[in-house]
Predict the structure.
Amino acid sequence: MADQMVTANRLTDGAVVFLAADGSWAERLADGQPAPEGEAAAALLKLAEAAVRTEVVGPYLIDVGPGADGRLVALRYRERIRAEGPSVPWLMDRKAEAS
């Protein structure tokens, strides 16, 4: 069984966010609170659903685990893109130029 984490989109700017241990919303997956799949993960999702309409929209659980370098990563490719940005290098270069 994989660990899970809650992700959503912040209402103010649409940014992808992750539920942190203190109940706040973090922009980095590494700052999110992982929980074992099952009751603990369901409890995190319930906490996140209380923030719907005031802070975030669409909270849901994602599977997370250690990556090749040991850091926490999303296990599904779609969620990695949401957490880390575009997978096409030229898009990432354009994003960096815009900031």
Summary: The mean pLDDT is 88.
